[in-house]
Design a protein that fits this description.
Elements (H helix, E strand, L loop, with lengths): L1 H42 L8 H5 L11 E5 L1 H9 L9 E5 L5 H6 L1 H4 L7 E4 L3 H4 L8 H17 L3 E5 L16 H17 L3 E3 L2 H4 L19 H20 L2
Parallel strand pairs: 1-2, 1-3, 3-4, 4-5
Helix pairs in contact: 7-8
Length: 249
């Protein structure tokens, strides 16, 4: 019994030591990851390397192939992860990068869109700019970057679908920015541009906004990113917009 009483504190210390070691290991891994990300941002701000290998493996479009590239941020790449069946068996290529803003997308637009020779590009961008991921950016500048992507696509005979920014009442990683009016302003500009330049405007916003003009609770897990139910709302809207774009001259 005495031996057991002596062992219990020792075991407790061992367990505490193990927990501390595990926590230190996790902290070290997080620090390494942060440093790696900081270094990548210095060396490859737009993340041109992110899809370089994948792009090199993309074959030229087959005859009659209606290839579509989805260009965007975490909402775009999250679609592939959360609802991969939407992309299965279709000539769809996902080129979303989490956290990206429109200037980053504009830099990588040629390798990640133009060089893949799609018939249609679906551009979903702007919310991270409003969130200030790469610093404060006026709505007019965000709009200009998206227009520049559209113009690059048109110059290369790629049909353009301009998607609305999804509703967001607040950004959990940067609260208090009051994005609602900025999202409304940007979406209004994108819709007007699409209508005046014979492009397709893909209105996710109207189907997904709640009474606060944020993302409906049942369609998201954090108020910004869609869950599977959210992508299930987006899917038929995207399909309709792509079909419309393919018919445009």
């Amino acid at each position: 019994m005495k031996l057991k009483k002596l062992c219990l504190p020792v075991m407790a210390l061992m367990l505490l030591g193990s927990a501390a070691w595990a926590q230190n290991g996790a902290d070290s891994a997080a620090i390494r990851k942060k440093k790696q990300e900081e270094e990548r941002m210095k060396q490859d701000w737009a993340c041109l390397k992110c899809f370089a290998d994948a792009n090199a493996q993309v074959a030229p479009p087959a005859a009659g192939e209606n290839r579509v590239v989805f260009m965007g941020n975490s909402i775009t790449i999250g679609w592939l992860k959360t609802m991969p069946e939407y992309f299965n068996g279709k000539p769809y290529i996902n080129r979303g990068i989490s956290g990206q803003t429109t200037p980053q997308m504009l830099i990588r637009f040629r390798p990640d869109v133009i060089n893949l020779k799609p018939k249609v590009v679906v551009i979903l961008a702007g919310t991270n700019d409003i969130a200030g991921n790469t610093g404060y950016t006026p709505v007019e500048t965000i709009y200009g970057n998206i227009v520049s992507m559209a113009e690059l696509a048109k110059a290369n005979n790629i049909k353009v679908v301009l998607a609305s920014v999804l509703p967001a009442f607040d950004y959990p990683w940067r609260p208090g920015l009051e994005p609602v009016p900025k999202i409304a302003e940007l979406n209004s500009k994108l819709k007007q541009y699409a209508e005046s330049h014979n492009l397709v405007y893909l209105d996710y916003y109207s189907a997904m906004a709640d009474e606060r003009k944020g993302l409906k609770a049942e369609l998201t897990y954090d108020g910004v990113h869609p869950n599977k139910a959210g992508y299930e709302v987006m899917a038929p809207l995207a399909e309709k917009a792509i079909a419309q774009a393919l018919k445009r001259r």
